[in-house]
Structures are given as structure tokens and as C-alpha cells.
Hints:
heterodimer; A: alpha/beta; Rossmann fold; 2 domains; 6-stranded mixed sheet; B: 321 residues; mainly alpha; MetI-like fold; 79% helix; globular; binds iron/sulfur cluster; binds magnesium ion
Amino acid sequence: MTILLDVRDLAVDIPTEDGTVHAVQHVSFAVNEGEFFGVVGESGSGKSVMVQSIMGLVPGARTSGSVLFRDRDLLSLAPEQLRSVRGREISMIFQDPLSSLHPQYTVGWQIVEQIQAHEKVSTKAAKARAIDLLDRVRIPDAAARFDAYPHQFSGGMRQRVMIAMGLSLGPALIIADEPTTALDSTVQAQILDLLGEMRSEFGTTVLMISHDLGVLSRVADRVMVMYGGRRMELGAADAVLCGPAHPYTAGLLRSSSFNREPGTPLVPIGGRPPSLLAPPEGCAFRDRCPDAMSICGTKPPVRHYDDGTEVACWLESTPVEPDPPVLPPPSLLASPDDPIVKVDGLRLTFPQRRGEPRVVLDDISLEVRRGETLGLVGESGCGKTTLARAIAGLVAPTAGTVEFDGAPTGNLDRAQWRDLRRRVQLVFQDPFGSLNPRRRVGSIIGDPFRIHRLASGAERQAKVQELMELVGLNPEHYNRFPSQFSGGQRQRIGIARALALNPELVILDEPVSALDVSIQAQVLNLLDELQRRLGLTYLFISHDLAVVRHVCDRIAVMEGGRIVELGTADEVWNDPQQPFTRRLLAAAAPEIPREPRDRRLLPLSVAGAGQQPVSGHPADRHAADRIAVEVAS
Amino acid sequence: MTRFILSRIAFGVLVLFLLSVFVFMLFYVSPSDPARIIAGDKATEELMAQIRANLGLDRPITEQYVTFIGNLLQGDLGYSYRSSMPVSELVVSRIPVTMSLVFGGMVFWLAIGIPIGIVSAKHPGSVRDRLGQGFAIVGISFPTFVLGMLALYLLYFVPTKLGFMLFPPSGYVPFEQSPLQWAWHLLLPWLTLALVVAAVYARLTRGQMLEVLGQDYIRTARAKGVDERRVTYVHAFRSAMPPLVTQLGIDIGLMLGGVIVIEQVFGLLGVGSLAVTSVAMQDRPVVIAIVLLGGVFVVVSNLVVDTTYALLDSRVRTATR
Ligand SMILES: Nc1ncnc2c1ncn2[C@@H]1O[C@H](COP(=O)(O)OP(=O)(O)OP(=O)(O)O)[C@@H](O)[C@H]1O
Ligand code: SF4
Ligand SMILES: [Mg+2]
């Protein structure tokens, strides 16, 4: 095995108005040729900054350390040399395939541009190659779609285009930053399969970032766990994921809903990640760690196990299993006789320019029982959000009726309408699009108080900061703008805003799909707790059956504007009746088995000299010295 | 696309119709008497009645308006009360001056404003950025006539005192007569106009570019190995363009109706200076003609902007295909 990418002691500092963000702090790892290397960590742990700074893509960043790639240090290359590496030897695939493609150029043009940026080929030849690539990532009718614009493609197809573009020059390394996070779970599975296939076909090495342990457990050979800009654990994927040695990794696995029995509360990691402006002296995870000891106030050493796992932690035994949080008893038991929402024969069509009107919702009848959580699963475009909006009274049905709390939502006067707006709240799925980039976060979250004239001035600020605390945001960031938050942090802003007025029915449209697991668990538990305490009713929309199974009492499966299956969570999960439900099940993340490991922790002094070659820096003869330095510093 | 353009044209015609009614009404309710203006202070009441009858001013307003529109559609805008020249001839003779001023100035303000905006946005907070910003503030806050006078003083008056003529102080030479003289005479007005307007474009360009440069697809372009120049111009500026086109359309449309201050300062007999004299002298037919002309320019430039906008945006373009 040879090393393709050798990152040593990489540190990235980004100067900002508030001070310097120490986004990556002395991280070392090596990616072997041909392997699938996964990086996992919470939002804001510095994963994206790390991989982007490797390619010199973070404007204004100061880097130190070295990134060796094929005998060159990428951090000290001249701009022109770095440019020739980008896209030709190392490609990147980004999280959001819509915003990552230029909206004003055709997809074909964008692939041709990449080819011509590095090779002197005629446009005709480049076009032929681009069509071939589109064909290989299975874009149907590639030649005709060459001239299509990104907005004419679905999310999954756009990501295929990004992959085709990434592969266009046969790079040695593909860096994929959350390539499937923005996609439906069935499409996610397809894209992952495609990446795997392309890896064997092109012999490419893949470095993939994900916050989803389930995804990584399927595809990764080795995994690195990051936290607060630092490396926590590194090792073979099954060693790290099935038998975590670091308390943080163990915590991540405990808070994953796909990994816990339905009904059992998740065990979130309490608190929130450390500030990267002033990183803590000792272990970055210390104030959230159930195993924390007094020695953890000093920087933990990198410990080595004889199976190659490396862990930055003082702990010498298996991490403890804290008890799940005790939730209050439900204040309201859902019963079939007390529906809060009654939908009967709902049909919704949109007129089209020519021909038949488009049927979006087709003869839907269902009840939402007061106090329950009803899950609504289906792929994007199947009408989930439209149904939710119809229930909230935001779109008028073409036929059929919607009743809220016994009263039809058809003709409401102004006061009733306002009242309905307060009693029914929506949480939207798009953390990027639903926040005005020019407004401060505090004032965005304070909107409901302002609109309904409930609190102002210092009182409003106090309430907003309480909400920020509740959803795991730092209340000190009251005056920040949405762009200064990482993807996951932005989603929490939207949730805080919806919870502000203690509504009765909350429609949660993919509320946690953009969050990483420890925060997912916090939010899911928080939602659960609020429901029990306040007797809230939830309509929970998601494409991810694993999450839905965990949180919902009943599940409705939607396909093409119809409800094809409706039953209790257990029935749907264990005994699916429809082929579509089975497909969804197959795409859901598998449970990761817990396996006790038979391995030995190497003593600190001999660790470097002993069992090195399995992971870390196999070819590095000076490993022992470096470990000594790491311990000392 | 055709449907889109046709509907915009129909809308434009409607706007012009409403505008014509509006100016007509405005003059009808104004207290001044055209007969008095034409005949002078010492005219007899009899003569004035005669003039009113000749002009049709004694008839009901609706009838007057219908006659006016009927004539207008045949290209007849009536006669100037002052010079007795046909209004259409009078106004048309002024258009080339204003057009030369505006389009020539446009070349300069775009050539100055856009590069400043781009450089500022590429290096936000740098010395170059601050210089560019300072330039914008000066351009925006200085009154046009001050800049014009300053230009005249520095580039005409001072050189003349030193014994040579760098630029002529005023006047207009038609392009057909001598392109060189045309440009030489217009250079100072162009530069003055450009200095005033370029500041707006520098700011707009900077703001747009800053926003676009932060977009994910710009990062993608860099990650692809596209060189920085291409990232700036082909990727970023391409997306920053539509708002600039809109602003340009609005500015051109408004200015073609007369660039009053600059025309006055440099003694250019364009539409703007005609407007000033006509308003001062209550020359009603000329003022109506100029207002309508300005309306036509605004409507046409809006049409051009909307069409260009649609052509520039792949989303609009493909939706109407
Ligand atoms: N351009 C920037 N300027 C200032 N701070 C930044 C910038 N980009 C990222 N950060 C900060 O750096 C830290 C790491 O961000 P990064 O995007 O790498 O996190 P991540 O691990 O990729 O998170 P996610 O899972 O949400 O994508 C965060 O605190 C973030 O706020
Ligand atoms: S070093 Fe201490 S605080 Fe940090 S993870 Fe290990 S046990 Fe927990
Ligand atoms: Mg990221």
C-alpha cells in the first residue's frame, strides 16, 4: 500500500471580524492509494475547511503543516502549479449539487470547461468525452442532455453531473464533501453505489466527508473522526464504528436514531461543540465527555491500539455507556377518537399551460390524532410538502376538505387565520434558502414575537437566547449572520423560530435531515420532550425511514401524490406491504452492530516503535519521533 | 419569447397613452395662457381670441386631445409657440446631440466603473478597494455641475491661460461632418458624465461581484482548475451582469430624455437644454413632445432590458422556449 495523500500537522486559521477561527488544529492523517477514506464529525468540526484548504480553496485562510501529494507539498505550491492539480489530479464534489453548478451554463459546457482547463483538446473532442462521461454516470440520453441547464435536472442527476465532472480527467483522488446529504435516501444509495463503482472502474481513491455514520459504515475502509477542529480517532472502519475507543465516537453512535430501538430515547451528547475562536487547552471534548477525568485538562496523547486504531484520549478502557435521559410522562395520550386534523378526499391539482392539469395530491384521507407523531415518508416530489401546506391551510384543496380541531380551514376570517398561523407551525427543510442572509440571527428567531407582538426589546432578546440555547446554538452568536454558521447550525435557527410560540400542531418538514447525529438526537429528544410536556402534535415529514421509525407512532408512506401505506411504525418497518415501502427500507441506514474488540492498548513509550504499519503513516520512518513530539506538545 | 416581447410592447403603448393624457391634462389645468405667450404682453383681446381659435384652444378638452393624438399619429406635433418651427423638426434636430453625449458617456462610465468594481470586489478591504470606494463617494456626492465646472477650469481654462487649447469649451460638431472634431468636442462632457455615473456602476459591480464570488459554484470553478481570470470574468461577472444591465437600461432611458445639467454646462444644444428653455417659455407643444419622447425612450429601453435579461438568464430562457 502506498500513501497518496499525507497530511501532517495541518492547521488552518481563518481571520474573521470576531477573531481568528482555528478551524483545523494540527491534524495528521494519510490516505492510502485505492482506499475509501471517510471523515466524520459534527457540523462545524472543520471537515470542509480542512479538505478545502488542502486545495487552497478557503479565501483568506492561513495554513501551516504540510500536505504531501505525489511528492509535492500542496500548501507551498505556486498558484499556477496548484491550479493544475485542482480538477486534474484531485477533484472535489460538493454537498449541494444545485448551488455548486453554475446556473447560467449548460452542464455539458461545464464539463468541457474542466477538460479544456487542463488539456489542449478541441471542443468537439472534449464534448464527445463529456457525453461519454454523462453516459457512464447513467444520465439517460446523455447526448441530448448535454445542453441542459442544471435547473432542468433533479438533485440526484445534478450530483451525477458533479461526479462525471470530477472524473473527467481521471484524477487520482476524489474528495467528496457530503455528496449525498442533500439527497433522498433512495437516491443517496444510488449515488453511493455510483461512487463505489466509479472507484473500481477508474481506480480512484476517495476521501469522503459525511456526518452520517450509517453511510460511512457502508462504504468506508478507514474512518477518521474529527471534533472541534481536531482528530479524535482514526482506524479501520469496522474497528472505529463497531468498537469505538474514543468517548466521542461512542457518543455519536449512541445518538444515531438508526442505531437505537424505536421508543428508546436517544442518548444525545449534551452541550455543544467548543468555540473555535478560543479552543480549550486540554481535550476539546472534555465538557461533553461522560468519561472526563482531571488529567483531561491537559492535551491528551495519541494512543495506539494493536489493531491500528489511533485515539487522542487519556482513557485506557472502553468508554462508559451513560443512561438515556428520563423524559417526562406524556401529558396527552393519542387516541383514534380525538383527531386534531381530519383530511377527507383531499385532491390538489395545478393547472398547466397546456394539456391536463397536474395532479399533486390524489384522494388523500387521513387523520392526525391529537398528541401523536405521524410520519410522512416518500421521495422528494411525491407531494409530502404540499400535503403539509394543505393541512396548514396555506394552499386551498381542489376537492375534499381539511378540518383543524373540528373546524374546516376553508373560509377563515382574519382573526381565525392569524390564530391558525399561531397554532400550526412549520419547520422547513432548506437551511440555506429559508434564512435571509442579510438579517441577524437574533432578529430572524425573534420574528414570531415581533409579528404576533408578544415581546420586544430586552425581553425578546432573552427569549430568543433561551431558544438558541435550546436548539444547541451559542446564544453569544445573537448578532451573527446566517452565512457565519455552518450548514447544520443554520437548520437549528429555523427550528428555534418555529418553537417560539408554543404551537399545537408542528409540521416538521425534514427537520433533522441536515443535522449531524448528536444534534439530531438532541433535537429529536427535545421535540419528544416538548410533545410530552405541552401535548404537541407532530406531523413529521422525512425521506429517511430510519429516523421516522424512531420518532413516529404511525407512518404514512406516500408515492406519487397518494398514500400507499398507513400503519403503526412497527407494522410498516417489520411487515411492509408495498414494493415502494420495501425499496425505502432497503435504502435506510443499517444498524451498526456493537462488537466487543479484542485488542491491546500499546503503552505510550513503545507505541511508535511497535505496531505502526497498519494505519496512520505506514511509510513514515520518523513516526516514533513524531509521537514523542505530539505527546510532549 | 415572442409572446413575452409582444406583451411588453402592448404594455409600453399603454404607458405612453397614459403619459400623453397626463401631460395634456397638466397643461390644461395650468393657469398660463398660450395666446398671451404667443402674442406678447401688448396684444389685444381680439387678437388673442383669434389665436385661441386658430390653435383650437376654445374647443372642449376631449376634442383637443383627440385632435392632438390624431395629429401625433401622423407625425405632426404642431408648431412651437416661440419659434413657429414644427415641433417634430425642432426636437429631432436635438436628438443626435443628446444621443452622442449619452452613448459616448456610457462607454466611458462602463469602462471606468466596472473595472473599479471588479478590482474592489476581488480584494475587499485592500488599498485598491478603499481607493475605489473613495472614488465612488466623490462621484456620488459631488454635484454634476461642480464636476463639470471643475473639468472646464482644469482642462480648458488653465491650458488656455497657458497659451494652448486642450479642449474646446463648448459646442457640437455633427459626427457626419468630422468624427474627430465630434469626439474632441464631446470628450469633456463625456468624462464629466462618466465620472458622475461611473461611481454608481462601481458600487453596483462591487456589491454584485462580492455576492457572486461567495457562491458555491465559484468554489466549484476554482476546484476544477479554472484559472482566476476566467473565474472572475466568465463565471462571476457573468452572474453579476443582469442587475448591471437593468441599471444601464434605466439610466440610458432617462438620459436620452435630456441630460440637463451637462448640456447646460457645456453649451450643448441637446434635448435637455431644449427642455429647459421650453419650460421657461411655456412652449407647450415642445414640452409635451419632449415628455413623450422621454417616455418613448424609457419604454423602449425597458423593453430592451427585459429582453436582454431574459436572454441572459438560462432559467427564464428555457422556461419560455
Ligand atoms: N469562510 C469562513 N470564514 C469564517 N469562518 C468560517 C468560514 N468557513 C467556515 N468557518 C468556520 O469554521 C468552522 C468549521 O467549519 P466547516 O465548514 O469546516 O465545518 P464542517 O465540519 O464542514 O461542518 P458541516 O458538517 O456543517 O459542513 C466553523 O466554526 C465555521 O463557522
Ligand atoms: S481525553 Fe478525557 S475528556 Fe477527552 S475524550 Fe478522553 S476521557 Fe473524555
Ligand atoms: Mg462541511
